Every structure is written in C-alpha cells, then in structure tokens.
Input
Amino acid sequence: MLVEHDISDVRVGMYIIEITVPKNKFRLAKQGWLENERIIDALKSKSVEKVLIDASKTRSVVPSAAPSVTTKLAPAAVTPDTTAKDASTNPFTAKNTLTNARTLTPAPRGQYQFNQEVVKAKQVFDESKAIQAKLFHNAQRGLPLEMDEVYKITSESTELIFNNPNALACVLNLRNKDEYLLEHSVSVSILMTMFAIYLKIDKDIINQLAVGAFLHDVGKIMVPDNILNKPGKLTDDEFYVMKSHARHSVNIMRKTPGISAISMEVAGQHHEKLNGKGYPLGLKGDKISLYGRMSSICDIFDALTANRCYKQGYPQVKCFGILRKLAENNELDIGLVDKFIKCMGIYPVGAVVQLGSNRLAIVESHNIADPIRPNVRPFYRLAPKAFEKGLDVDLSSAADEQIVKCVRADEFELDMQQIIEFLAQEA
Output
C-alpha cells in the first residue's frame, strides 16, 4: 500500500518510492529501503518534507555499526535540480545511501519522467491485483468483501489517471497471461475510469463506475476452472454455466453493504447487448444504461487485447475494428464505441508500433491535432535485431518517419516488461 509520509514520521526499514514534497526538486533514480538514520537525516537536511512509502514492504532493520571515518562513501543520495532557483552547481553528497540505489538525478523530463510515472502506475496496478485476489478468496468462501481497500485503490487509480492517464494506459500492456482473471477486472476498472473522464462524467460517479468495474467479474470464482479456462469453444451447457458469473457477481455485491446502485449497474449489465441477445437479463436498447454500455465496451476491449494461457491477444488497432463490427451488428453502442476509440487514441499510449525506418517504437502520448501521428520512442531495430537507444519522435513533424502498423511485442520474441525495463535503464 502506497502512503505519503511526513519526513518526521519516516523510519528505518521503510521502502521509499519517491520524494513528493518539494515536487520536482529532488527525484529518486531508484527506490529502496531506508537502511539507517543517516539517509533520513540527509533527506531532512535538504528540506525534503514528504515522501511516498510502500507500507507493504516495510521491514525490520538491525542497526549497523557506524562506519569509520576512513570508510569510502557511496554515491550521493540526492542531487538538486540544477534548474531550480536555489539549486547549487555542486551535487549534494550524503554520508550514506539507499541500499543499491544509484545517484539521484535532477527532476526528470521527457522519457525519464514517463518511465518514473510508469513505475508508480505499475505499483498501483500490482496492489490492485493483490486486493482483487483477496476479493476472490472471500467470495469463494462466502465471506463479505472487504471494500475499504477497494475504495482506496480505485480512488488512487482515478487520481493517477486524472493527473497522468498515459502511465496507467501503458501499464495495461504489462500483463501476465497466467493472471488474466485478476488483471482483467483491474484493467477494465482502469479503462472505465479513463473513458468516463474522457466523457466528462462527474468525479463522484467515476469513482462508483471504477468500483463496479473492479468487481464486475468477482462471480467468475464460482465457475469451474475447466470451463473458465477452456481453450476451445464452449458447449451450450458450458456456456450456460459461464453466463451464470454475471448473476453471481451481482449476488455477491448485494450481500456487501455500501455498494452503490451505479456500481451494481456496471457489474450487472456488462454482458448485455443492444439487440437483446446478451445476458443475464436479455435487456434491449434503452433498457441498458449508459454505464452498462460503457462497461461492455471496456470489458470486450480488454478481453480482446489481453494474452491468456490459451490464446494471444490482438493489437489494439485490430480490436477497434472488432468493436465497430459488433456495434454495426447492434450489440454495442456505435456512438460510444467511436468515443472510446477517440479516448484511447488511434494508437493507444503504451502500444508498440513498427516504423517505416524498420524500427519498433512505443507510443508515449497522443497528438490531439493529428491523432494518426502520435509521439513515439524508438527502442528496437529489426535488422539486425537489437535494442537501441533512441530519441523521442513527434511523428506529426517528422517528414521522414511514419507508422507502418501496430504490432505486438511477442511477434518479435519480446515482452512489454523487457521493453519498459530497457527504456527505464536508458532513462
């Protein structure tokens, strides 16, 4: 659990994520445990007021003997931002450092900033998965859902998306095919939040939508694994059992005090279709609420893009085509599908694209005025195959570069974790 602490409350053994106050004056290059009081004192001496701590990683630390005066000092704990008004031209050197931490660098910009934010977003994503696992555990045993953690993490995700939607959008691509059940619900909650923000829905309602999406598949824990993970087409009897998960989700949520009607709506209607051929109620047309229509789009998009133990996901651009086809068949709301595509961008943030220069690049941000030419970061050359350092490219102003197609990293025997780690090291 990520908690912001006043520097006066920080103790040895805590795991520090970043400096939050003052913002952008000092920046950790690498996270780590606070091994002794000297590190904390060094932070205090530079007027650091608040830091972000991962409370789940706090550990007991046996105090070590103070180093002798001849002990060789490790790299500096913090380095002032040389652009700050009061920054010194000489780096500040602490008497000790975080274990295994590198020199802390000036306030990040560009790619460095992007990767630091992705690291933070990944921590929120992983914490969400851990909470999701507890929900499934309780639901399977007929125990009440512990909602305090759900409200906290969905609120934290919402704030993160409000402040920087690109980071969590990128993390959606860092998936484990063996953890689909956990990751799917977390991802749909994130997509639902992004979509609702794009539609300018009231923030209080957005939080309720995020909770509903977070819980929308909790009923799947009642479906046997041989049906849930079957690689081939389900038989009619198997599909009947699979469809029961929507009712199970609603029933589990009804037994949990405090869950709003809007959250129930999201979970209960995410498999309904405009043509009335959905489930569990076979609702048709206007009987399906705006929030139910949104949830089915987000649910299908994530299911199409995600790798599973028995199938590979599709590139995002192909999934947009599938969503539009479903809308043309009167299963999804065509107007909302088009808005969802605009929300995600023709080339979503975090997507991998192949460039005309025979390189792979990751989409870093959109160009609102030119949506088919986003800002990208090349990272891999295809001939010969090798990672390479590259500069940010604004395709809207790069006359000699263009996107050939949207691809998946695994098409080139790469994975997104490997790519992000390379970009973070480069930064």
About this structure: The longest strand covers residues 375-382. Residues 110-140 form the longest helix (31 residues). The CA atoms of residues 17 and 31 lie 5 Å apart.
